[in-house]
């Protein structure tokens, strides 16, 4: 260890002191009075406060006053541009009606500027909730607008190309209800209309990775859910392999998705995808709520990751959380990250909430509490997420050499008291309510509950006005729910 030498202490840019460090390393190290030294974008050292404070001097020190300090949470399944129409889908609307009534109209109306504002809203919310990185699901029509929004807020974003699909009719099957298909879905005018167009667009976001310090990077996203041919999936996997990034696609949100693919392939869909070489350690499947025993085995054998969205899995009554195998697969060593999915599917981009729901979902039907534990779901939200996003070499632990993406909580909230086990406190009581200061890439993005570089209230008013204008052009009115009648007794 380098202590005070002839030159005195080393100079760094920022010291975070007196935090209860959750290092999130393999040893699950916790340091009750710890400190993190940051220079530029990078963590230089993390360890006991007395040791770090003796070794480094910094232009700025942040005193965590004993509250938890941990790496930023990583959102692994997100549709970032839907946020300006959250809470718009009424609860009485049928699942198969949503695409034509809302989503298709949104995609055929939204401008790039409106997408930018939606991603700004999502990004502000994620930072406030301790999420410092998100993997977008490849459904922003103008990724450049999403990139600008992420850079404005300062959140780490991993973008994909727009709607990589070559058989959109698959979506019809995915959303079919028990009595069969409902016809061809509305055409989305700005999405690829043929395999050639999808192949031409595929991998466009990877150019961002030429800059090793880029805050916004690219990965390969395919929509999935039966909307891609084998040729397109294989091209996507090859592009992800060549670029050293993640291939990310939706899989088995509902039983209908699985049924359609099973018919197409003549076997369990993941068995077929494993055989043709589409699965692997750099592949992340969004949802995967409905898996057979054999599919669980190929996931383990190939090292594929899952992006589990607990809130979204419960929306339409598909039993995703009840039937999901995420918890048992995690215990068997499979990598699982957490996701919020989208507005109207979870309405809140808060991974602490998803982590809490993951526990509750796996407790359901059990006679004791031996379901997922807080340590496990926090592991999914941070380390699991970093790997599922293809970022495990850069983020996910408070260790020297990693990018400085940190969340510092406050002890000044009732939910943080009494102090004790910091992980049970974070997942059980405090969650995102105690998030106080957030650092991304070495930069203090949220400083004591405020964004120092942004006029957040003005931005929120502008986004609200833009949302109302967008809905008006979509021809969508925010209907009150048709609440079933209830007889007074
Ligand atoms: Zn999704």
Would you give an account of this structure?
The protein has 489 residues and is of the alpha/beta class. It folds into 2 domains: 112 residues, Roll (Urease, subunit C, domain 1); 316 residues, TIM Barrel, CATH 3.20.20.140. The strands form 3 sheets. Strands 1, 2, 3, 4, 5, 15, 16 and 17 form an 8-stranded mixed β-sheet that branches. A 5-stranded parallel β-sheet has the order 10-11-12-13-14. Strands 6-7-8-9 form a 4-stranded parallel β-sheet. The longest helix is centred in the C-terminal third of the chain and has 19 residues. About 2% of the residues have low confidence. The site of zinc ion has 6 residues, from loops.
List keywords for this structure.
5-stranded parallel beta sheet; 489 residues; Urease, subunit C, domain 1; 36% helix; 2 domains; 17 helices; 8-stranded mixed beta sheet; TIM Barrel; alpha/beta
Summed up:
By secondary structure, the protein is an alpha/beta fold.
CATH architecture heading of the largest domain: Alpha-Beta Barrel
**First-residue to last-residue Cα separation:** 74 Å
The main β sheet shows up as:
8 strands, mixed
CATH superfamily of the largest domain: Metal-dependent hydrolases
Architecture blueprint of SSEs:
Blueprint: E1 10-22, E2 30-39, E3 42-48, H1 49-55, E4 56-63, E5 68-71, E6 73-78, H2 95-107, H3 112-128, E7 131-136, H4 143-153, E8 156-159, H5 169-174, H6 195-201, E9 216-218, E10 220-224, H7 230-243, E11 247-251, H8 255-265, H9 269-276, E12 283-287, H10 293-302, E13 305-308, H11 310-314, H12 320-323, H13 326-331, E14 336-338, H14 351-363, H15 374-388, E15 406-409, H16 422-430, E16 435-440, E17 443-446, H17 456-474
Parallel strand pairs: 1-4, 1-5, 6-7, 7-8, 8-9, 10-11, 11-12, 12-13, 13-14
Antiparallel strand pairs: 1-2, 2-3, 5-15, 15-16, 16-17
């Amino acid at each position: 260890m380098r202590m005070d030498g002839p030159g005195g202490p080393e100079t760094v840019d920022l010291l975070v002191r007196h935090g209860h460090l959750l290092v999130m390393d393999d040893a699950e190290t916790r340091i009750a009075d710890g400190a993190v030294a940051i220079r530029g974008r990078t963590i230089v050292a993390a360890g006991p406060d007395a040791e770090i404070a003796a070794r480094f001097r910094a232009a700025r020190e942040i005193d965590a006053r004993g509250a938890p300090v941990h790496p930023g949470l990583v959102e692994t399944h997100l549709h970032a541009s839907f946020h300006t129409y959250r809470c718009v889908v009424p609860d009485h609307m049928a699942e198969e009606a949503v695409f034509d009534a809302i989503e298709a109209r949104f995609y055929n109306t939204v401008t790039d500027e409106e997408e930018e504002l939606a991603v700004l809203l999502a990004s502000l919310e994620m930072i406030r909730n301790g999420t410092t990185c998100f993997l977008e699901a490849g459904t922003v029509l103008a990724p450049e607008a999403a990139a600008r929004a992420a850079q404005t807020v300062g959140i780490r974003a991993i973008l994909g190309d727009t709607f990589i699909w070559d058989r959109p009719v698959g979506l019809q099957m995915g959303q079919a209800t028990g009595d069969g298909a409902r016809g061809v879905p509305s055409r989305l005018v700005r999405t690829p209309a043929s395999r050639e167009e999808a192949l031409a667009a595929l991998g466009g976001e990877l150019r961002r990775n030429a800059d090793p310090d880029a805050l916004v990077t690219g990965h390969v996203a395919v929509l999935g859910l039966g909307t891609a041919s084998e040729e397109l999936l294989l091209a996507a996997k090859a592009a992800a392999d060549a670029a050293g990034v993640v291939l990310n696609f939706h899989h088995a949100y509902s039983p209908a998705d699985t049924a359609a693919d099973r018919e197409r392939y003549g076997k369990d869909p993941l068995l077929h995808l494993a055989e043709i070489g589409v699965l692997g350690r750099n592949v992340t499947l969004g949802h995967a709520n409905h898996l057979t025993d054999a599919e669980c085995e190929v996931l383990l054998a190939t090292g594929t990751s899952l992006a589990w969205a607990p809130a979204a899995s419960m929306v339409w009554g598909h039993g995703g959380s009840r039937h999901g195998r995420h918890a048992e697969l995690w215990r068997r060593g499979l990598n699982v990250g957490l996701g919020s999915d989208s507005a109207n599917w979870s309405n809140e981009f808060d991974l602490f909430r998803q982590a809490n729901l993951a526990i509750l979902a796996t407790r359901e039907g059990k006679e004791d509490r031996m379901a997922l534990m807080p340590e496990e779901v926090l592991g999914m939200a941070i380390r699991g997420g970093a790997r599922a996003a293809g970022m495990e070499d850069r983020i996910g632990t408070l260790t020297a050499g990693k990018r400085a993406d940190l969340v510092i909580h406050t002890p000044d909230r009732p939910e943080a008291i009494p102090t004790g086990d910091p992980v049970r406190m974070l997942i059980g009581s405090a969650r995102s309510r105690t998030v106080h200061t957030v650092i991304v890439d070495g930069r203090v993005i949220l400083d004591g509950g405020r964004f120092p570089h942004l006029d957040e209230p003005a931005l929120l008013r502008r986004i609200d006005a833009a949302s109302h204008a967008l809905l008006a052009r979509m021809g969508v009115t925010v209907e009150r729910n048709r609440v079933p009648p209830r007889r007074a007794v």
